[in-house]
Amino acid sequence: MIKVVLFMGCLLSTILISSANPNLATKSDDDDETWIIDPSTDLNMVFAESPTSREYNEDVLNKESSEHFDYLLNCSEKRGRECNEEVMEEILQNRNVSDRCCEKIVSVGKDCHVGIANVMFKNYHVRRFASRSVFKASKVWNRCYAQSDAAHTPYSG
């Protein structure tokens, strides 16, 4: 508690001294009148612009190869919008996908399923969940594959 009071006291005194004599904040200790902040600098000028979410998403999608993107787009269309939304809900909200959606996931294959999840989680608005998307997408695949007919069909190599 004493450290907090001392810190606040030092901070308050620094602010009061700086506001009482603004030259202390702009000049160095040298006698040659060198300015720390160049007075001709326009502080309202934008130094760097961050991309908008739309620009970010476009840039991410442009980095994907067109063949890979077309493959994932085709897979996504085969699964359907409703199933894609169910997968996102399972990954983000732990809601299980329906049996019908599981069948579609297995029918398009694991590469397609995980690839779609990776591209979906590169989206600006959900990228903060990307670290768990691959793990959860694989978990969804494993669960759906285990309950599908393909897992129960004997191999006749």
TrEMBL record:
Keywords: Signal
Keyword presence, Ligase: no
A Pfam family hit: Prolamin_like
Domain Prolamin-like: 74-144
Keyword Signal applies: yes
Signal peptide: 1-20
InterPro entries recorded: DD11, Prolamin-like
Protein name stated in the entry: Prolamin-like domain-containing protein
Organism of provenance: Capsella rubella
